[in-house]
Amino acid sequence: MNLLSSASLFSFFTIISRIFGYVRDILIAIFLGASIFADAFFVAFRLPNTFRRLFAEGTFNAAFIPSYVAIKIEDKKEGKKFSDDVLSSLLLTLILIVTLAEIFTPYLVYIIAPGFNENEIKFELAVELTRITFPFLLFVSLSSFFSGILNSNNKFAAAAAAPIILNVVLIISLISSYFLDLNTVRQLSYGVTLAGLIQLIFLFYVTLKFYKPTLTFNLKFSSKVKFFFRKLLPSILSSGVTQINILVGTIIASFQAGAVSYLYYADRIYQINLAIAGIAVGTVSLPVLAKAFKKGNIKKISDIQNKSFELSLLLSIPASLGLILASNQIVNALFGYGSFSVKDVEMTATALKFFGYGVPAFALIKILSNFFFARDNTKTPFYISVFIVFLNILISVSLFSKIGFIIIPIATSISTWTGVIIYLYLLNLKKSLLLKRQLIINFIKILISTIIMSLTLLFSLKNSVNYLDYSYDYKAVYLILIVSFVGILYLISCYLLGVLKLKNYKTN
């Protein structure tokens, strides 16, 4: 398997999904802005969407794939039985969770957005919308199971393409609500649940080629299934620490008007790079890494480690600098329309800038945790993640009253970088940090290419001020042209310096 080509395929569908996602968010910004309706919807969508990200973007795979691959290598029939038992128990658990959540929704909303309790209308609306959107959790979690089956067979396209369905359905919901004069925020919420159902049906049929499920509902599970579920919960916190930090940020931000929306829009922008630099690389490397550990192939483990690091840095470092240098222009071009005011642009851009400092760390966390997950070690990432979340909460809560919501992206970036340092220290302590001299050399080349890109970006922004102004109708077009130009320049520079070559990322 070639890490670059597999990650590129995964990234292609991810980028398509994110493009539709941006169209969706632009429409939300136009129709809802940063109003109480937007805040209520984002809170209602936050919890099921957080679970979507947790399950679909690494957590379930981190727990499932190493176990499934190891069992299937020894006995294919046992692999099938293991999958059936996991699916059956997962379905029962999810039905119970969704049922309880529907009953106790007001308490759930209070936990997620305690600040909403001060505004009865906003609180009640958030409760109503949460009840509509929460079944999405059931559908998307089951979808993640089938994605795990596909990824275990080195089939990444369908799982990466599935989120496109969510964005397309939500776009249709928004447009139809406008033309049919329907309640926009409710229509949008119903669209979330419908999209989850369609996504599940799609992945189910694609997976049938590799796996035909049989629901057992036998509560007497094997030791292997019990072991899987024991490590699933710590995996949720470990692999999804960035998403948990965002959820924590939403809770704290609920005490400031509009802050939930600002954080949501900023989160949406930097997530595209995280999806490519962290999630894509982590997702495609985990199955082959698990097989390498199972067979005790140290050389292959070292190769995957170095290539994963390099590819993640290659993609995240330029993105980080781009978000820092052009945060205002990016937010303005994407969301600066309709109900989304100049102030909304400025506040969201400030949040995006500080999230930008953490982008390489957000990506590296995904890669670093894999080296423990592949060994079926979920305890170490769990403890590290607990510390990261605790540090994030400590910084955010202690300074929120003085700085406001902007402390949230700052705290998220600081705590995640701290986590990266801890991971590297532990891997080095266990003599599992198998870095090669070539990685250091290529890292320097990436920095050189990033500097060239950044200088070009600053020059382009300086000479396009009038075309990127809030009032200019075609500002998004000019931003796309600038980003495309500096992006191509960066890739050419990397290629000429010998970093971006397909053969460099072959893992076989």
Short description:
The chain has 20 helices and no strands. The protein has helices at 3-32, 36-74, 76-103, 105-112, 120-133, 135-152, 157-161, 163-179, 184-207, 223-239, 241-253, 259-295, 298-325, 327-335, 342-356, 359-373, 379-403, 407-429, 437-462, 475-496.
Oligomer: single chain
Main β-sheet: number of strands, strand sense, barrel status? none
Shape: globular
User: Which range does the strand content fall in?
Assistant: under 5%
Total number of strands: 0
**Structural domain count:** 1
What is the radius of gyration computed over CA atoms, rounded to a whole number of angstroms?
Answer: 22 Å
Low-confidence stretches: none
Classify the secondary structure makeup into a structural class: mainly alpha
Rounded to the nearest angstrom, the distance between the terminal CA atoms is 6 Å
Question: What share of residues is helical?
Answer: over 70%
Protein described:
The chain is an all-alpha fold and 508 residues long. It has one domain (3-505). Helix content is 81%, strand content 0%. The longest helix is centred in the N-terminal third of the chain and has 39 residues, at 36-74. The chain is globular and about 65 Å long.
List keywords for this structure.
508 residues; mainly alpha; 81% helix
Give the SSE layout.
Layout: H1 3-32, H2 36-74, H3 76-103, H4 105-112, H5 120-133, H6 135-152, H7 157-161, H8 163-179, H9 184-207, H10 223-239, H11 241-253, H12 259-295, H13 298-325, H14 327-335, H15 342-356, H16 359-373, H17 379-403, H18 407-429, H19 437-462, H20 475-496
